[in-house]
Amino acid sequence: MQKYRLNWAAGITAARLLPEEKAVLADNGDKLYYDKLLIATGASSILPPVENIRRGRQVYGLRNIDDVSAIGAAENCRQAVIMGGGLVGIDAAAALSEKGLSVTVVEVADRILPLQLDKKAAARYEALFRDRGIEIITGEMVSKIVLDEKENVTGVQLKGGRLIPCSLVVAATGVKPEISFLEGTAIEVGRGIRVNEYQQTSYPDIYAAGDVCESVETFTGKITTTPIWPLAVMQGKVAGTNMAGVRRKAAGNFAYKNSMTFFGLAAVSFGLPEAPDSSYETYILDSPGSYEKIIIKDGRLKGAILQGDITRAGVLGALIREDYPVKAAPDKLFDLNYACFFHELENGEFTYQDEALTSR
Amino acid sequence: MKRIFIKPELCEGCKNCQVACLAEHSPSRSVWFVNLSDQGSQPRNFVELNNEGRPVPLSCRQCDEPECVNACVSGALQRDPATGLVVHNQKQCAGCWMCVMSCPYGMILPDARENKIAVKCDFCADRGTPRQSAL
């Protein structure tokens, strides 16, 4: 902090943005003036519209260290229900189970991790979780949090009618950009703060990066939030560079990638977990310790799942992100590695940008 | 920044560079005593076949803007501004595999023994010159 001459205004909250004055109003009444402003307020967890969810005293999101402390402090709990079987919910389930709690996960899709994995890869994790006594309920949702007269959680009621007793609920049903302090400004906002390829908002002196913003995502070509860590870092660097007066565009804004490891089983996935229609070809390599799936359309990779052996996963991710021709026969797909695309730059770095591609 | 330049047309696929890497990261550092049957004996460089079936030797480029470092949530991966090397602190690594997912060239991977932390080329950190390049 000293090296870069940074001032950290610890313990205060940015309450309101005053773009006409080029200032941020803090909750202690201070006004902090800026020449350039970066908004990097991230996202916060969503509580889904479920009866009693805001009244229940032992209902927690899982986003910040305070959430973790609060959940950890709920010591007397023996039974927990996790709403949502995504990465956050599944991580919470594994951790609480290891602490000795009896855990139930309720997921609305037909499998856990539906955005990251196909049915087969998800089933391997479901089996590992069930082996450890964690109950996984798919195709169901919580319709009501059951409370006692002091608003302590005593259970959840599922849509299908089943009542699950519990004294702790973790709501892991997604996040939303933290933009409440922008109220009253004309800054362009969709789901997140809209930014261009320089991470610049509709106000030229205001930039945004990370989970709080939305931008053109590489894989879909659509404007979406891009709530994964590597992109937050990349966007932050791009924003900072431009704010310091050096023009630089965001590159590789590819949000459809995830890595995970639960109970010793690793997985990495990119792009589509399932082929959406018959114009895609799907290739699968299935063995006891490992599962690999590759989805191709018109000679280009559109999705990949590696579970078990994740070595060289990044090559598949790069091929999807760069929309680079695979150039491999179907029987060689699972041997794809960077040797097939080797191209060294003058400074010794690698690249995928060969002549054919630059002339495209 | 120093890098090992690659001339794949000269590679005969002997994999001696991998043996050198294995030995360097073994307890004895000796080619004579390295235990090749140990599951944890894992080279951090690679000789892979390309689409024509020709061997290509590959190793971490110590990128100027390393994607593995951008992806590292725990801070275990850092680029040393003095040497330009991308350094991995194994004690800080949480084994989340974000780096494995992010390296476009597949040059960082889970450790073969326990599958708990990542391993990558350290440019033979305290040797001065990488051992594979002395061949």
Keywords:
heterodimer, A: 360 residues, alpha/beta, five-stranded parallel sheet, five-stranded antiparallel sheet, 6 helices, 29% strand, flat, disordered C terminus, B: 135 residues, alpha+beta, two-stranded antiparallel ribbon, two-stranded antiparallel sheet, 3 helices, 13% strand, globular
Describe the model.
The complex is a heterodimer of chains A (360) and B (135). Chain A is of the alpha/beta class and 360 residues long. In chain A, 17% of the residues lie in helices and 29% in strands. Chain A has helices at 65-73, 87-98, 119-131, 229-243, 313-321, 355-358; strands spanning 14-18, 23-26, 31-33, 37-39, 43-45, 59-60, 79-83, 102-107, 135-138, 142-147, 153-158, 163-165, 168-171, 175-177, 193-194, 206-208, 213-216, 223-225, 257-262, 265-271, 281-287, 290-297, 300-307. A 5-stranded parallel β-sheet of chain A has the order 6-13-7-8-9, covered by helices on one side. Chain A has a 5-stranded antiparallel β-sheet with strand order 19-20-23-22-21, with helices on both faces. The longest helix of chain A has 15 residues, at 229-243. The model of chain A is unreliable at 355-360 (pLDDT under 50). By secondary structure, chain B is an alpha+beta fold. Chain B is 14% helix and 13% strand. Chain B has 3 helices and 6 strands; from the N terminus they run αββαββαββ. The longest helix of chain B has 9 residues, at 16-24. Chain B starts with 15 loop residues before the first helix and ends in a 16-residue tail after the last strand. Chains A and B meet through α4, β19, β20 and α5 of A and β1, β2, α2, α3 and β5 of B.
